[in-house]
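TASK: fixed-backbone design
INPUT:
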């Protein structure tokens, strides 16, 4: 009897643990309070992509950079103060799309005032951006509330950089509760969008002090990039992350890695570093050859990323404007 009792307690605590680990977010969170939410967001993302196809990539990246820093709480959108996330190294002169989020938030407020968080708007917007760029669709989990703190110092510590070695990138994902499948599948986001010369020019002339370019960069792509990004040129010039199909969300990112055509060092090391052999290389090969599996894994990993430390219940607030906390 005593034994059965402790088993019961063990079972209950496992259940609590299970519920704690799983998010409390739901797909139908706004069904009654904002029935047209998905239509309103979709129309605005469509407009933004019609205006500039690259915006799909930029909107996707905003959700990633929001979720990794203090959870998916809209903190990347906050203005004001000198240590905000927008000003942190990985974001400054780099993340974009804030005006599009402002427009979406205004349309959502016009449809249903005061109920939809900026954090949830980022999650829906990222899904629509991927889908409208040719990628997979998934049902977005909702019910996040907005945070009141934007921490630039933290952003600089937890966001991966293109200069990180593979073990650092993996541990930054692990610290966020994500695993190796998530690292490789989500890196596939680099099938769309652009990267600036300043973030890969270390590979082009004198890689790691060797006096030569990165040997894991295809030679014809190397000469293209050397002309695009000359030494002492404009570091803000951009190159496509997937030069084969720039704005199309497909699995060509992984085919590129097999052919030494990753743009960033952090892309190519998933396939080419010594460490990759025992961790990420096999997944790169699989996705390069199996677009359906990449799409399914990407969708699942986006849901897992969207579940990072959400604020629910009475935690946080529903911001009136995405750029400032409610007074
Ligand atoms: C694995 C670690 C990652 C690193 C080191 C990394 C790094 C970068 C860098 C350096 C850029 C170019 C930024 C610039 O030129 O200013 C970039 C762009 C981008 N990243 Fe990542 N990233 C990573 C993972 C992710 C993830 C998980 C996502 C989304 C799920 C993502 C989505 C994007 C997109 C869509 C762009 C293009 C943005 C645009 O064109 O505006 N990245 N990333
Ligand atoms: C919420 O709306 C979606 C889409 O219209 C529908 O599929 C779902 O059944 C609804 N859920 C509830 C609980 O009403
Ligand atoms: C911001 O993050 C840093 C680094 O993790 C931490 O030391 C600091 O306490 C945080 N600041 C706030 C206001 O939360
Ligand atoms: C990562 O987590 C997912 C979901 O739990 C799981 O399906 C997948 O196999 C895991 N990947 C690795 C490499 O452990
Ligand atoms: C490459 O960089 C190293 C270390 O920074 C330096 O010592 C070397 O002179 C450089 N080589 C060339 C060819 O610029
Ligand atoms: C990129 O542009 C910004 C804004 O104009 C500027 O402040 C920054 O110095 C530029 N960065 C590089 C690497 O040229
Ligand atoms: C892709 O799959 C086909 C058939 O399943 C196989 O013959 C081929 O070697 C695979 N290619 C790669 C790069 O894994």
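OUTPUT:
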């Amino acid at each position: 009897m005593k034994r059965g009792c402790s088993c019961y307690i063990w079972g209950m605590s496992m259940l609590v643990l299970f519920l704690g680990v799983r998010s409390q977010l739901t797909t139908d969170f706004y069904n009654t309070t904002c029935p047209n939410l998905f239509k309103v967001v979709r129309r605005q993302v469509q407009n933004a992509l019609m205006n500039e196809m690259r915006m799909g990539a930029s909107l996707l990246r905003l959700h990633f950079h929001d979720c990794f820093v203090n959870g998916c709480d809209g903190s990347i959108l906050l203005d004001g103060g000198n240590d905000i996330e927008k000003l942190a190294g990985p974001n400054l002169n780099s993340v974009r799309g804030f005006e599009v989020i402002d427009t979406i938030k205004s349309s959502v407020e016009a449809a249903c005032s005061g109920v939809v968080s900026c954090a949830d708007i980022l999650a829906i917007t990222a899904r629509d951006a991927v889908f409208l760029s040719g990628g997979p669709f998934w049902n977005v989990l909702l019910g996040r509330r907005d945070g009141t703190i934007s921490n630039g110092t933290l952003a600089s510590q937890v966001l991966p950089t293109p200069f990180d070695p593979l073990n650092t990138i993996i541990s930054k994902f692990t610290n966020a509760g994500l695993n190796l499948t998530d690292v490789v599948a989500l890196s596939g986001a680099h099938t769309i969008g652009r990267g600036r010369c300043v973030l890969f020019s270390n590979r082009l002339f004198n890689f790691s002090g060797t006096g030569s370019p990165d040997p894991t960069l295809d030679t014809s792509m190397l000469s293209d990039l050397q002309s695009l990004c000359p030494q002492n040129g404009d570091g803000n010039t951009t190159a496509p992350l997937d030069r084969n199909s720039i704005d199309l969300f497909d699995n060509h990112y992984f085919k590129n890695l097999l052919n030494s055509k990753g743009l960033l060092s952090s892309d190519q090391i998933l396939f080419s570093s010594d460490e990759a052999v025992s961790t990420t290389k096999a997944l790169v090969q699989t996705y390069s050859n199996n677009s359906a599996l990449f799409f399914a894994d990407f969708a699942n990993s986006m849901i897992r990323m969207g579940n990072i430390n959400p604020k629910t219940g009475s935690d946080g607030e529903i911001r009136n404007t995405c750029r400032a906390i409610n007074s």
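COMMENT: Residues 180-299 form a domain with the Peroxidase; domain 2 fold (CATH 1.10.420.10).
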